Amino acid sequence: MTLIKEVDYGTPAAKSEKSVTLTIDGVSVSVPEGTSIMRAAMEMGTEIPKLCATDSLQSFGSCRLCLVEIEGRNGTPASCTTPVAPGIVVKTQTPRLKALRKGVMELYISDHPLDCLTCAANGDCELQTQAGAVGLREVRYGYEGANHFDEVKDQSNPYFTYDPAKCIVCNRCVRACEEVQGTFALTIDGRGFESRVAAGQDEPFLESECVSCGACVQACPTATLTEKSVISIGLPEHSAVTTCAYCGVGCTFKAEMRGEELVRMVPYKDGKANHGHSCVKGRFAWGYATHRDRILKPMIRASVSEPWREVSWEEAIGYAASEFKRIQAAYGKRSIGGITSSRCTNEETYLVQKLIRGGFGNNNVDTCARVCHSPTGYGLKTAFGTSAGTQDFDSIDNMDVMLLIGVNPTDGHPVVASHMKKRLRGGAKLIVIDPRRIDLVRTPHVEADYHLALKPGSNVAVVTALAHVIVTEGLVNEAFVRERCDWSEFQDWAAFVSEPRNSPEEVEKISGVPAELIRGAARLYATGGNAAIFYGLGVTEHSQGSTTVLAIANLAMATGNLGRPGVGVNPLRGQNNVQGACDMGSFPHEFAGYRHVSDDATRDVYESLWGVELDNDPGLRIPNMLDAAVEGEFRGIYIQGEDILQSDPDTHHVAAGLAAMECVVVQDLFLNETANYAHVFLPGSTFLEKDGTFTNAERRIQRVRKVMSPKNGYGDWEITLLLAKAMGFNMDYAHPSEIMDEVARTTPSFAGVSYARLDELGSIQWPCNAAAPEGTPVMHIGHFAAGKGKFVITEYVATDERTGPRFPLLLTTGRILSQYNVGAQTRRTDNVAWHPEDRLEIHPHDAELRGINDGEWVKLHSRAGETTLRALITDRVAPSVVYTTFHHPVTQANVVTTEFSDWATNCPEFKVTAVQVSRSNGPSEWQESYNRQAEQSRRILTNVEAAE
Ligand code: SF4
Ligand code: SF4
Ligand code: SF4
Ligand code: FES
Fold first, then answer.
1. 281 CB less than 6 Å from ligand 3?
2. What does pTM read for this prediction?
3. Do 597 and 299 touch, CB atoms closer than 8 A?
4. pLDDT of 397-410, one tens digit each?
5. 241 lines ligand 2 (CB under 6 A)
6. CA nearest neighbour of 110 among 134, 142, 65
C-alpha cells in the first residue's frame, strides 16, 4: 500500500460549461471559463509555486509566490487570482519570475525556525517544498533581527497544536474556518510584522468557539497547525480510503497509517458526501479503537450474578449456540431473536438477519432504527413508495429555502451543517421549527428567517397549519399534484387541512407559535423557489412520529418540491449505517429492500438460495421482544453492537425484559450497559478492522476498508458466521464482497452494486440497477416509486404524556457535537474535554422559580423515574421546556422517559416527557453506586490486562 496523495489544483474548479483556450508555456490548454491560470496550468501538469492557495478555498492572493507573465499585459499577476482569458499566452517560468519568487521565499524563510529535521511536518511541509521549487539556496537577510521564534505554542486543543513561530500568515486557516466550516473562529490579529492568527478573542483554541473540525489543520501548509498524533507517531507511510463510523453523513477519510498504527484520519477530497470536510468525531475521535476498556477475549457466565470467565472463541460460540438450541427446543422456535447494529456494515447486518430468519427460523429481528427513524421508513414508503430520503447532499447547492424541523445539524450532522451554512451565506432562506434555539437560528453570517419554537409534541399541528396556509392561500402547485399524485386523495386532504381548526390561529393555542410566524414560514416555503425539508429525531421520536413524516411528505407534494435537485424530503439519519441496516432487512416484517415477509415471491428467492423454509409471519419488534420476555415467552437474544439498556426507553422495563431471558449474547467493543444482563460476551471489531460498506443518509453506499487486523481476532461478520455454523445453519463467505454480491443478486434496488463498481465509482446511491447503472442521486424524477404520490390525512392527536401540577415541564432530548449517542466511543476519547457530563438546560425563569443556580445539581423526575444532573441555565430553551443529552450512562436520561411510542412503528416518544425539576444535593444513590461499579470493573479489567 502507498500513501494516497491528492493533487492540489490551487483553486476550486470552475463550474462553467463554456470553455476557454489559452497557451501556457507554449502548450495550448482548454478549461472552463472562470478557471484560474494556476489551475489551468495544474490541469496540464505544470505546478506553479504557491503558498496561500489551495483548491479547497477561494483564492486570496497574499503570498505573491505564484506570479506569472502574460504576453501583452504589464506586471506579474498572481496566477491564483487571475482567471484565464481566450487566447492569452502565459509564461510560468522566466528569469524575472524566478528572481521574484526567490525574493519572496527568502523573506518567509528569514523568519522561520529552521528546525526541519526535528519538525513533525518534515517531508510534508509546503514551505519546505516550495523553497525547493523556487531553488532557494541562501537567505541574504540572515536570520538575525526581529522574528517570531519565541512565540508560545498553544497546546490546549486535545488533538492539534498551534505553533505561531512557524506561521507564515497565509490566511488559509482563517479562510478554511470561514468558507469550509462556517464557524468564523479565527482571525488575523495585528498588522504587518505583528500579524498573527488568533482563535476567538485571542484565547486558547480550546476556550474559543472553535469546534475542532480540523479544516484549518488540513489547510495549513506548514507545521503551525499540526495533529498531535503526527507529532507523537511521525508521518504516515500508507493509507486507505474508508468511511466514518459515527454519523449518517458518511464522510470518507484517508486512514493514514504507519504499519498497523493509525496516525491520522484525513478527510478525502473526492468523498462525495463530505468533499474533504469533517467534524471532530470522524477526524479525531478514533482513540476508542485502541482504548484499554476494549474487551478482546470472549467471556461467558452461567448467570448474571456470577463473574465473567474468559474462554476461547470456540467455547463461547459453542455455549451460545447450545443455549439458543436448548431454549428453542424447550419453548419453541420463536422464543429467541436478535438485534442488528446500525454501527456495523451492511454485510454484517445482512448476515445477522439471515442467521435469524434462516438459522433461528423466525423473523424476530429488529434494529435500533426502531428507536429513531422507523417512522421515516413507514411515512416515506407510504407517501412516495420508498423508505429513504429523496436527495443527495449536493442538492443543497441548489436550494433556495431550507425548512429544518426537529433536527440540529451543527451538532448531529456537522458536515451537512457546514454545507448548509455555505448555501445560507450565499442567500438561501431558512425556516427552523424546533422547541430549542439551535445554533443555526443565529450563527455567524447566518440567521433564520423564521424560528417556530413550538411546544414539544405539537409537530403535526404545526406542519398541518403550514399546509392550511398553502391550500387556503392558493399556493398549491396544482400542475404537479395533478400529474404526479392521486388527485382525489389530494382533494380530501386539502379539504381537511383547510378546516378552521387547522388554521395557524387555532394551532397557536396548541403549539405556542404565533400564527403570523406560521403563515410567513408557509408562504416562504411555498413561494421561495427550490424548497427542501430536513428533519431528524425531533420529528420521529413522538407518539405521532409517523404522522409528522406523512405531513412533511404532503407539504413537499403540495408545493411540487420533489423530483429535482434542490428540493425534497431529507431525513438526517443518526448513526453511520442506520439507512443500511434498514435496507438490509433488519425489520421483523421485511427482507432486504423492504419486501414484506409475507410476499411469496421474495420468500421463494431466499428459500431456494438458503435452503431453508422461511417464516411468513412478521416477527417481534424490540419492545415486543422485551414484553414477551417479561411474560416468559421470549428467552434468548443475540445483540450485535447495540446498547439497548441505555438507548431504549423506559430503562426499568428493558432491564426487566433482559433479566427474564435465559441467554443474552452481546457482541460489542466494550462491556456496555446491556452486557450487565448478558451470559455471553463476544468482543466486536472496529470499522478499522474489517471490510464492508456503510450506507449514509443520502442512500450512498461507500466502502469501509480494513487497515489493521482485528484486535479481537475476528471481524464482526466472521463472528456471525461462526455462530450460524454452530447453530447448524451454514453461511459460507470468504470475504464481505461475496455477501454484497448475494445482496445484489437478491435485492432489485441493489442489483448493480458490487465492490468492483464501488471501487470504480467511489460510491453508489441506491437504487442501482439496469435502469440506473450508476445509482440515483435524486429520487422520484418524473414519477414516484409508488406510481402516484399519496396524500394522507394527518389528524393531530395530543400525546397522552401531559404536563400537570406534579410534572409541569416538558423534557426533550438531543445530541451535542463532541459526543455520540450513548457515548460508548466518544467518552473513550479526548472529546470529553468538551462534554464531560450531560447537563439539564433550563430557562432562567424556570430556574429562578425553583431557586436553581447554574451548575447546581438538580433532580429530574417524571412518572417513570428520576435522575440527577447539573443545571445549565440558558434561554436557548423556551420557558416550561427543559432539555438534556443522553451521552453518559450515569445520567441515564431514559430512566425518566415513558413507554409511549409512535402509533405505527413503536418508535419511542423520547422527545416529550412531562417532568419536574428540583434542587438536589448531588448524584442519587444509584448513580453513586453506578460510578463505584464502573470504577470497580475498570480496575478488574486493568488488572486482567496487567496480569497478561
Ligand atoms: S478546527 Fe475548525 S472550527 Fe476550529 S479553528 Fe480550525 S477550522 Fe475553525
Ligand atoms: S496557521 Fe498555518 S494556515 Fe494559518 S496563517 Fe499560519 S501558516 Fe497559514
Ligand atoms: S459529520 Fe458525521 S460522518 Fe462526518 S466526520 Fe463527523 S461524525 Fe463522521
Ligand atoms: S498562491 Fe497565489 S498569491 Fe499565494
1. yes
2. 0.93
3. no
4. 999 999 999 999 99
5. no
6. 142
